[in-house]
Design a protein that fits this description.
Radius of gyration: 20 Å
CATH superfamily of the largest domain: Pseudouridine synthase I, catalytic domain, N-terminal subdomain
Number of strands: 17
Structural class: alpha+beta
């Protein structure tokens, strides 16, 4: 079935729809060897040879994969690493499809990371307008005061602008450290660490313990599992994609912008 090229490219996980439209206008998309520069152009991903920005667009149809990984510390949230460090792909044994991280966790962070080749859903999950909440367990050096916690909850001015309000829950504290749970729906680079630094403290440990409604229950560090069809549909409902087909997944466990 024919569809608009930007939709095909986005769904394949190569770019957002807006970026795909830019590629089309710049003459970087071809169908069966012919360059296409019209935004309304259509193609059949099952029959046509489509190239975008020099890469072949595979027909993904019903082959979408949705993977939840419990990322360990010391693993890079990219598909490859020029320094030869271990990447999340190295942990996904048995996953034949090329899946991409939905956002990132930095090298020293751990916890839940969603990966998929469903570019449309990935872009929606990462867009702040959909308000997909991510929660982190954070160990902070020093004792946070009530005033500092209030500042974190109201939003912190960063170089690129003030963060949206966050939900903060105090977990415990010692004479030298504080543990808090912080929930945000943005995905700025190293956002939680930078927020804590702005109130005068340093993050010693950061673990993502929830992505939307997904938690690491039954998923050891370094393990991954496919999302169930019901979980995929719930994510689509959260981002306004209810009714979109192409789900593939199972609940069987296997022994995950940097935040």
């Amino acid at each position: 079935m024919e569809e608009r090229l930007q939709k095909i490219i986005s769904r394949a996980g190569l770019a957002s729809r807006r970026k795909a439209e830019e590629w089309i206008l710049e003459g970087r998309v071809s169908v069966n060897g012919r360059v296409v520069i019209e935004l309304g152009a259509k193609a059949d991903p099952d029959r046509d040879a489509i190239k975008a920005n020099g890469r072949l667009v595979r027909a993904v149809g019903g082959a979408f994969r949705y993977v939840l990984l419990n990322k360990p510390r010391g693993v890079v949230s990219t598909l490859s690493d020029p320094e030869g460090r271990r990447t999340v792909v190295d942990l996904l044994k048995g996953i034949k499809e090329r899946v991409y991280p939905v956002g990132r966790l930095d090298l020293d962070s751990e916890g839940l990371l969603l990966l998929t080749n469903d570019g449309e859903l990935a872009n929606r999950l990462m867009h702040p307008r959909h308000g997909v909440e991510k929660a982190y367990l954070v160990k902070v050096q020093g004792v946070l005061t009530e005033g500092q916690i209030e500042r974190l909850s109201r939003g912190i001015p960063l170089d690129e602008g003030k963060t949206a309000p966050a939900r903060i829950r105090k977990i415990r504290k010692t004479k030298t450290n504080s543990w808090i749970e912080i929930a945000i729906h943005e995905g700025r680079k190293r956002q939680v660490r930078r927020m804590v630094e702005k109130v005068g403290h340093t993050v010693l440990k950061l673990k993502r313990i929830r992505y939307a409604f997904l938690t690491p229950t039954g998923l050891p560090t370094g393990a991954f599992r496919a999302l169930t069809p019901g979980e995929v549909q719930k994510l689509k409902r959260l981002t306004g994609m209810e009714g979109v087909h192409g789900i593939r997944g199972s609940a069987e466990p296997r022994v995950e912008k940097e935040e």
